[in-house]
Design goal:
- The protein is an alpha/beta fold.
- Helices cover 36% and strands 22% of the residues.
- The chain contains six helices and six strands.
- The strands form two sheets. It has a four-stranded parallel beta sheet. It has a two-stranded antiparallel ribbon with strand order 5-6.
- A hairpin with a 2-residue loop joins strand 5 and strand 6.
- The radius of gyration is 16 Å and the shape is globular.
């Protein structure tokens, strides 16, 4: 079984990140042992995250970010997500599918389809 740790780069805990640099040697050693990392497209497609992932020389499991986008009321552009995957294959170990969200609220189930 592989356990993926989420959000290391978006929390600046990459090997060149601010949080990592503030940690003591023991914590830094533990961080270096993290073998499987997951990042959300919703966050890493902006800013310097891709550059930082490349700099650390790792590949990540790319989550579609659908739940983050839904929670924040942001539209997801499926074509842009697919292009991002295609353009950054060197840092992506695998990517999740962006299809639908099922939201459970009390006795009601709401299915939300995301469109490009």
């Amino acid at each position: 079984m592989k356990l993926y740790i989420a959000g290391l780069f978006t929390s600046h805990f990459g090997l060149n990140g601010n949080l990592y640099r503030k940690c003591n040697a023991n914590v830094q050693a533990l961080r270096k042992e993290v073998a499987y990392q997951l990042e959300s497209y919703h966050y890493i497609h902006k800013g310097n995250y891709v550059k930082n992932i490349r700099q650390d020389g790792v590949k990540v499991f790319l989550d579609s970010g659908a739940f983050s986008s839904f929670s924040l009321g942001v539209d997801v552009n499926i074509a842009a997500y697919a292009e991002f995957i295609k353009s950054h294959q060197d840092i992506i170990e695998m990517a999740s599918v962006l299809d639908a969200l099922v939201i459970l609220k009390g006795p009601t189930i709401t299915r939300i389809r995301l469109r490009s």
